[in-house]
Amino acid sequence: MYMSNIPRAFEDGKAFIAFLTGGDPRPDCTERFVLDMAEAGADLIEIGIPFSDPIAEGPAIQAANMRALASGTTVDRLFDVVGSVRRSTDVPIVFMTYLNPVFRYGYERFFRRCRDSGVDGIIIPDLPFEEKREVSCVSGRYGVDLISMVAPTSGKRIASIAREAEGFLYVVSSMGVTGVRRDIGTGVEAMVRMAREVTDVPIAVGFGIGTPEQAREIGGLADGVIVGSAIVEILSEHGPDAGPVLRDYVRRMKDSLSR
Amino acid sequence: MNKGRYGVHGGQYVPETLMNEILSLEGSYERLRKDPGFTAELDALLREYAGRPSLLYYAKNMTEDLGGARIYLKREDLNHTGSHKINNVLGQALLAKRMGKSRLIAETGAGQHGVATATAAALMGLECDIFMGRHDMERQSLNVYRMRLLGAEVHCVDSGTMTLKDAVNEAMKEWTRRVDDTLYVFGSVMGPHPFPMIVRDFQRVIGKEVRQQIMEKEGRLPDVLVACVGGGSNAIGLFYDFLGDDVRLLACEAAGRGVDTRETAATIATGSPGIFHGMRSYFCQDESGQISPVYSISAGLDYPGIGPEHAYLHDIGRAEYIPVTDGQAVAAFEYLARKEGIICAVESAHAIACAMDLAPGMPKDSVMVVNLSGRGDKDVASIARYRGEDVHE
After folding, report:
1. Closest to B274 (Cβ–Cβ): which among A104, A125, A149?
2. At what angle do helices B346-358 and B326-340 cross, to 10 degrees?
3. Quick check: B289 and A175 CB within 8 A?
4. To probe the interface with A, which of B282, B288, B291 has the most A CB atoms within 10 Å?
5. What confidence score (pLDDT) does residue A181 get?
6. Would B103 disulfide with which of A43, A73, B127, B221, CB 3.0-4.6 Å?
7. Which pLDDT belongs to residue A182?
8. Nearest chain B Cα to A55, which residue?
9. pLDDT at B142
């Protein structure tokens, strides 16, 4: 029986899940940044495959998508990046992207390459529960977890979604798009509780988290926290030389979860 | 066919945050479409406020000049707010009110849908926010001011290509921010189910009226129906009630500077299957699935996709999708003005161009109906610029 690599991320206390947009600012930076984050304590890395029209993203990640596309980032290039990363680390890695790039690549070919290069899962924000079968019947065959999301508006849907969750369950903390917020949604605890009743997969919370204080607070409610925009803003500010700042940030975030 | 599917096209590819809302919209719509109170209220609005039924005008000069088919123009340009968009917007605004919503949001390209939405919001006392690409705001500044006059807030969209596609992106994002009190009024037969169905149903009035009017005038069904297509709402509205009849259906896509250039918006001619903006359909995109920047002189047809039902009608060969260039559309715009004294929208001029090509080769006793989806006041300045005259609005 196939065992996903993703649960490993949740074995060392609360998981710190770090997102960056693949190819931002250039494809040749991504491998180094991923290793920096893994070495600094990130338990799982999300690599965004850039898309021209990322409708779930706020300004920070949208701009990162544009930078990555402008520098010639392709799906193939990011598979190669993961392949190289895998020579140095077995940290769980998931892709985050929109359905169209995956659809155009071909589900079969895409998930075969995920398996071959060592991608453990995928998050597709514009693939809701009702439509996921066309993807899950292929991703499942290649042992790639299709990670489901629940949102503050999900209500009773949480149970059905969580029941079929693979890898981890992604709890969207707040309404709207990605981006650092001062206040995280107040419904997180209830969403986590509803999901917990029907699933044993780890539960991680994302959208809006940027500071160690927020991470610690949300970490107290779930199994992991996901941080994207705050990391992408570091890359945006420091460009190819972001490494040291990035490592420092990830270390502080992971520390805040361990205490 | 599966719910919300047109062959392989359609579906509901939206973030989880919107799913409950979309399901609830579907439920409300299914209930209200059968509610005599709702349909009576909508019919009254269409009649008393929008000015329906719109005329079916026999274009005698055009018919004689082209020397073939008898040409009728369905005068959607004479509706209140100047286009077919009001048909859908009144329906959706009424739906929003019945669902207890207090705010409408919408995308707009040429501004016609934005103006229509702002109008309905004003009429029904709803808040209104319109998203419009920066480029479109520049080329359609009169409509921007019109929307503001009507009390809507117009949000300038600076991302991506700064046109219709990006306005849809931002409107969808805004909907995920604030969904409880808000209905996203899609302007075309696109987006996730149930929008392609709802918008089509509200636009069907065009075809239903044509059917009745042409029977009165000609005593028979038309041979050909012609409409322009961006997302495709005026086209599907005209076509839908004739799908089962022996009537040729022609939809004119915006080819921009030509389908062999990159400056085109002809989705069927140059696009490929994809999944975007909530639906599976055809899209202008590169081989890795990045949505292409598209171009047309017409801000209303400047969209890289097409509604899923059109994609299906194309797949099964029921409707034909014909690219029409900027040059052809501008020539048709000028032709209709001189021949019939009608200044039509540059979008609708794409359909006129196609009719001009086709009519001369058709028998004199054949009948063609062209949907004049909107009026052209908004386009006068841009047509002048196209002809090298510096006219300012």
Report:
1. A104
2. 80
3. no
4. B288
5. 86
6. B127
7. 84
8. B169
9. 87
Look at residue A228 and tell me if it is in a domain. yes
Pick among B8, B16, B177 to test the A interface (most A CBs inside 10 A): B16
Q: Taking CB atoms and an 8 Å cut-off, how many pairs form between chains A and B? A: 107
B309 reaches A (C-beta below 8 A): no
pLDDT 10s digits, A143-189: 999 999 999 999 999 999 999 999 999 999 999 999 888 888 779 99
Asked whether the beta carbons of residue A175 and residue B159 sit closer than 8 angstroms, the reply is no
The answer to whether residue A99 is domain-embedded is: yes
A103, closest residue in chain B (CA to CA): B274
Q: Which amino acid would we find at residue A92? A: P
pLDDT at A110 exceeding the cut of 80: yes
Whether pLDDT at B59 is above 70: yes
Convert the pLDDT of each residue in B339-376 to its tens digit: 999 999 999 999 999 999 999 999 999 999 999 999 99
B11 touches chain A (CB under 8 A): yes
Residue A1 lies in a domain: no
* Number of domains chain A contains: 1
Q: What is the pTM of this model?
A: 0.96
pLDDT, tens digit (0-9, with 9 covering 90-100), for B208-249: 999 999 999 999 999 999 999 999 999 999 999 999 999 999
Residue A88 backbone zone (phi > 0: left; psi -120 to 50: alpha; other: beta): alpha
Q: B200 by DSSP, 3-state: which? A: helix
> For residue A1, is pLDDT > 60?
no
pLDDT tens-place string over residues A192-216? 999 999 999 999 999 999 999 999 9
Give me the active site residues of B, please.
85, 107, 373
* CATH number of the domain that residue A238 is part of: 3.20.20.70
**A214 assigned to some structural domain:** yes
Tokens of B342: 């009608």
Structural domain boundaries enclosing A137: 6-256
